[in-house]
């Protein structure tokens, strides 16, 4: 039986992956909440459970490969592909552009399940979608751990998140948290933590 959104949130909270404070997100927006997916992904048993949710939901679409963007998407693609008995690949950014490298190739016969960790604006996912489309492969769906957009991003492909958060975000020049003088943390690839 699929896990409820509350069960997924509890899983993230139990390992310190759901944080509260004042954060600068990868998108540049500020938020009182941050999801540090690597606090969950560092636990193989939790990662296996989450990827099992992806595999169960998308296996009927008969993907032939699972693809995720570096960095968190590598772990998710690998574990999801393992559970589906498929190949796992990842894209990585080179000179500002998302590419398949390291000998990874897709053909028009491939049916690709995309996986991602956290979506706020969807920028990286759109780049991966463009990368896949350029190969002629079919995207059967997109599975991701956390939708921070509150369900507002339309990727133009079937998509589902294990957990949807309607989290407040602020533009950096109009941030209520900054006005309150709360210390800013730049976690993940955005900065120092």
Briefly, what is this?
It is built from six helices and eight strands. With 193 residues, it is α/β, with parallel strands linked by helices.
Q: Your description of this structure?
A:
The protein is of the alpha/beta class. The chain is 31% helix and 28% strand. It has a single domain, classed as Rossmann fold, CATH 3.40.50.2020. The protein has helices spanning 5-14, 38-41, 44-58, 72-84, 123-135, 176-179, and strands spanning 18-24, 30-35, 65-69, 87-94, 97-100, 111-119, 138-147, 159-164.
Index terms:
alpha/beta, 6 helices, 193 residues, two-stranded antiparallel ribbon, Rossmann fold
Topology of helices and strands:
Blueprint: H1 5-14, E1 18-24, E2 30-35, H2 38-41, H3 44-58, E3 65-69, H4 72-84, E4 87-94, E5 97-100, E6 111-119, H5 123-135, E7 138-147, E8 159-164, H6 176-179
Radius of gyration: 17 Å
Number of domains: 1
SSE-based structural type: alpha/beta
Instruction: Report the portion of residues in β strands.
Output: 25-35%
Give me the count of strands: 8
């Amino acid at each position: 039986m699929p896990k409820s959104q509350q069960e997924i949130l509890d899983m993230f909270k139990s390992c310190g992956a759901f944080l509260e404070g004042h954060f600068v997100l990868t998108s540049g927006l500020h938020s009182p909440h941050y999801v540090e997916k690597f606090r969950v992904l560092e636990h193989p048993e939790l990662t296996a459970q989450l990827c099992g949710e992806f595999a169960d939901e998308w296996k009927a679409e008969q993907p032939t490969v699972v693809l995720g963007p570096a960095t968190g998407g590598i772990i998710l693609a690998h574990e999801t592909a393992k559970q589906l008995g498929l190949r796992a690949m990842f894209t990585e950014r080179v000179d500002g552009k998302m590419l398949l490298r390291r000998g990874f190739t897709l053909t028009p016969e491939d049916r690709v399940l995309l996986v991602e960790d956290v979506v706020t604006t969807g920028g990286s996912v759109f780049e991966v979608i463009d990368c896949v489309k350029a190969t002629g492969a079919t995207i059967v769906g997109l599975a991701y751990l956390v939708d921070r957009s509150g369900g507002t991003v339309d990727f133009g492909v079937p998509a589902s998140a294990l957990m949807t958060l309607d989290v407040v975000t602020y533009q950096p020049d109009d941030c209520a948290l900054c006005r309150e003088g709360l210390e800013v943390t730049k976690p993940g690839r955005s900065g120092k933590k």
